[in-house]
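## tool: complex_structure
## caller: assistant
## args:
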Amino acid sequence: MNDALFSAINDIERVAKKQRTCSEKTMKYLTQMEDEIKATRGKLAACATVAEKDELMKALHEKLVKLELPGQIASAQKDFYGSVSRLGKSVDKHFGTSSFASRETNLDAKLLDEVIANHLFREGQPDLGRTFCEEAGVSVSEELKQSFLDMHLVVRELQSHNLMPALEWVKKQEKARQGGAGARNSSLEFKLHSMQFIKLLTSEGCKPALAYARQNLSAFAGSHMLEIRQLMGCLLYHNNISRSPYKELLSETHWEGIQQDFMRECCNVMGQACESPLLVASAAGALAIPTLAKFAMVMGKKQADWTQMDHLPVEIELGHAFTFYSIFACPISRDQASPDDPPMMLPCGHVLSKQSLTKLNKSNTKPFKCPYCPSEQKFGDCKLIMF
Amino acid sequence: VVVAGRKEGSEAERRRRGGEQVESRMEVVEAPFVRVPFEALKRAAKERKYIIEEVEGVMGKLKKHASSAEARRAKEGEATTKDGGEAMDVDGSPAAAATASAEGSRGSGGEWESELDDLLGTLGGLKRKLGASTQSEGVQIGRCKARVEHLLSLGAYGSERALGWNKKRVKRLVVDYLLRQGYHRTALQAVEGDAALGPLVETEVFRGCQEIVDSLRSRSVGPALKFCRANASRLKRIKSKLEFKLRLREFLTLVQAGSMGEAVRYAQKHLGRWASVHQKELQAAMASLVYRPYLDSGGEGEGGRKGAAQERYGHLFAAAQWEELEKIFKRDFFALNCLAADAELALDLEAGLSALKTPMSSSAQRSKEDPLSVEALGKLAATLPFAKHSKSKLVCWHTREVMAEPRVLPNGMVYSAAACELLAKEGKIQCPRTGDVFELGELKKLFPV
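## result:
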């Protein structure tokens, strides 16, 4: 694909070059024509007799004919058209024509507008979000808007390498959590502290950095000992970390990474998804569309559109980032587990869907045999499980 | 070792091939994106043809002048040798020769000058046209380039990088959607805020579309008809019904207003040529002339004709017809400009929501990470198919990792062995979902495969 794109860029640049040449030539010749005519015009005013004027006209015509203007322009133009059609061929070859271009969805615009409004606020574009809400006539809860605004304030500070607001936020969360249950996200806190340590080390020197480390990093000795050791190693090079084995710690990617990590944690605490739902859903779609398009092409017009089906006709492998639940497909019925048809565990440890289990039990009156290990089981001993 | 190496080789190869295959199918999604400015470039380039033709026209005129000057000179040469009187040119045009000689004796320099001025005017106009053409071509070439470069910058496309890949394109997808829905203020604000977005979206094209849509919404067909006339041949190529529908709509509006005579005259003037192509529809509309008065009448009288009229012809006058007209216009407009019929964002969402839809998404145990757990998205997905899964894919609820060695607690909850190790405290384990505490010994091994 990349090769196709590179060759497309080459073709476009060729088109640009030919177009410039063609335009310049045409303009040049037109100007020449103009100049000659202007000159003749001037001379005409000067001369007296008709005969002289006729002579001038003839001379003008001959001169212009000699320049072969139309011919020159035409050839430059042919060159240009040639390059354009070549680009066209390469576009056709690599992009083809897709049936998807004429496809129309039936998505409810109002609902989609709601999703987009949320997305805009979440992505740190509140002005755009407000304009959109006005124009489209949708609204987002004020509370949510404010939470996203606050989040992005901290992110902007992180962008200018200021870790303090983020650290304050973490402290606030810790305090709020003292009461209830819930896992402490030590990895975000640790990252923040270690970046602050490096920052202090490069800006203020060993002593303040060490004091900071003693105060804040010691709590993480149990979980992040390896990283702490590395950070301590930096103390040796406090004057020129950029030439030390630890120079990677100064890289900008850490700053970008910490922004992402902070946003994820912040959304998590808010009870929101870590990534924009619009982003995730459309990414899944971009992965799914080629397979669906191929299916539609293979099936032709006979098959109903896939949106009319109960289940998608093809399996689409999306990857770990899109897996939010366990999928259990009963080995017997090949059906997906659902709240109506949950997985059941047999005493022997094997798992079947409830429907398959019920079917097996119906066929005999005596205890049935597990399909995997031939041990006998009783229906009552089977337990509903949740993955 | 040899066996392991070979296996790994084929696995890597299969993965690479799989990745390539998926990559090469991304065009399905992105095709209109590159095609639109290219088609616009082609159209702009065609304009140049006319410039050449006009240049040739100028040359032709000059030639004519030059040859008539030549002829006159020859004629005058003859006149001086012959004795006055009427002289016949070799070309045999005595009248022309006579007038030429008459003018010649008057001193016809003036006519040359004004002719030349004309030609200069034409040339000036051509230069301006050329400038405009060059500029619009340049713009389109720039857009083509920007878009291909954008696609290159997206990088590899595949399930591992899908989120990062999509982040770079979602901005333009949103702006494209905004433009299509007519939210121009927001779209403009977005484009102003991000310089890179400009060449990636069709702001101008959609603005033109919106103007006509607005006119249709205010029940006026003028701009739309202008559009039809300007693009008559291309609309014909795609077998567009737009002009017919517009004319029909105007006719029916006249009928609805009660001006029957005018309506008939209108039909005779404008609808006649569609008689064979859209016969049935035309006949139904013409019939409405007869039934229109009944639609207004007070009671049910006259043998229930109002009912019949309403049933058969009422819909022709409904407001929904204008919405239908808007849809038809949009469809044809998009087709002419090589735009996709619907927003890419909508297409992606439709497919994506379906691919993500599982029965769990609407259950009480839904995960907040699941886009379908958002109310609006869940509603959008309500009519879409469920995803198809023929294989189990078990993920530990606690660690979110692929389930390696499942263990089941007495309450039926399942976690991976690794999760159980993390959760274990002093020989006891607390279920993260229900809070019940169990002894470690109560864990049982599970074999879901």
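## assistant note: The beta strands of chain B are 386-388, 406-408, 414-416, 424-425, 428-430, 437-439, 444-445. The first strand of chain B starts at residue 386 and ends at 388. Handing back to user.
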